[in-house]
Write a structure and sequence with these properties.
Blueprint: E1 17-20, E2 26-29, E3 36-37, H1 39-44, E4 72-78, E5 81-86, E6 91-95, H2 96-102, E7 127-129, H3 130-133, H4 142-156, E8 160-162, H5 170-178, H6 243-253, H7 255-263, E9 266-271, E10 276-281, E11 284-286, E12 292-295, E13 302-304, H8 312-316
Parallel strand pairs: 7-8
Antiparallel strand pairs: 1-2, 2-3, 4-5, 5-6, 9-10, 9-13, 11-12
Length: 317
């Protein structure tokens, strides 16, 4: 089982070529890679006039508009572009770099930075100062500081924001500066206070061990902001745990236990009687290539499903 994988850049060289196979597929060689490209897949990559909307770059045709018997009739590689002619008369020039991104060989420059597992003795906590990102994006330095802040979040999974005002509503102001707040049954802003009849354990003084919030939602919160305005209790230190590092450690040291966490489905359930939210997923989710994708970990809300063949001994170990 592989949890992380990097793609190396494959550069074109003198051996690079392209030709059409007898079945109408394009057989290409990009450096040391030799993909066999489906004609309809290539047709969908076209950005020629009339194929995409110029402003939003969305396709103007659907698969139903393309002949199901479409084949490539000619293919040539010139410099950094692959030119393909099709049986429907269309001809397009495709960037080899863009094709490599579509094939997953190189990172998309528009994608967020890849997550980095924490290591003992790693660099200090990523930090940003609120005044540096609080202005309009066209103000000097604000856009750069915001991009750096979001990049650190994508790499490390958290960022500490300093010098924020200790007034109610500040967390919403910060959140609205970088995106849109997603509301739920707790409201738009989750005000955590000790309450006599709590609708969540967060509304109590009970110590909460490391967990991921709201695993019972179909879409878990992506970016959460926590802002402590006042703490009149003893203790209250925050603990951060890297789920990616923990999962990679399990892969190395106890792969059989990790197998249980990636294959046994779990009912995550929030049930107040009036408000109910349920989702069924494994604790650790991997993508189709076996790379770490997501962690749902909350020992107050998880109920493993004892399906046939489920190794609950490993799950509870």
């Amino acid at each position: 089982m592989c949890l992380c994988q990097s793609y190396g850049m494959t550069l074109l060289d003198s051996s690079s070529s392209a030709s059409v196979a007898t079945d109408g597929h394009v057989e290409a060689r990009f450096g040391n890679r030799a993909p066999r490209l489906h004609p309809q897949w290539l047709r969908e990559q076209s950005t020629e006039p009339g194929q995409i909307e110029a402003t939003n770059r969305q396709r103007l045709f659907t698969p139903l508009d393309v002949d199901p018997g479409l084949v490539a009739v000619d293919a040539e590689l010139h410099g950094d572009a692959l030119t393909v002619a099709f049986s429907d008369g269309h001809r397009c020039r495709l960037s080899v770099a863009a094709l490599m991104q579509r094939l997953g060989w190189v990172a998309d420059p528009e994608a967020p930075p890849a997550p980095i597992a924490w290591e003992p003795g790693a660099a200090p906590f990523p930090t940003v100062f609120w005044p540096a990102i609080a202005g309009e994006l066209d103000e000097p330095g604000v856009a750069e500081a915001t991009v750096d802040f979001l990049g650190d979040f994508a790499r490390h999974g958290f960022v500490i924001i300093r010098d924020t005002p200790t007034t109610e509503g500040t967390v919403a102001e910060v959140a609205n500066h970088i995106g849109y707040i997603a509301g739920n049954n707790f409201g738009w802003v989750f005000d955590v206070r000790n309450k006599p009849k709590p609708t969540d354990l967060a509304y109590t003084a009970i110590e909460l061990k490391p967990h991921t919030d709201q695993p019972y939602r179909k879409v878990q919160p992506g970016l959460q902001l926590l802002h402590c305005l006042a703490n009149e209790s003893d203790g209250g230190d925050s603990v951060l745990v890297d789920g990616l590092a923990a999962t990679e450690a399990m892969c190395r040291e106890q792969p059989d236990l990790l197998e249980a966490l990636t294959t046994i489905e779990v009912d995550f359930r929030y049930d107040m009687g009036t408000d109910v939210a349920i989702d069924r997923r494994p604790v650790v989710q991997l993508d189709s290539a076996g790379r770490f994708r997501q962690l749902r970990f909350n020992t107050k809300l998880d109920f493993p499903v004892p399906a046939d063949g489920a190794d609950l001994d490993a799950w509870y170990a």
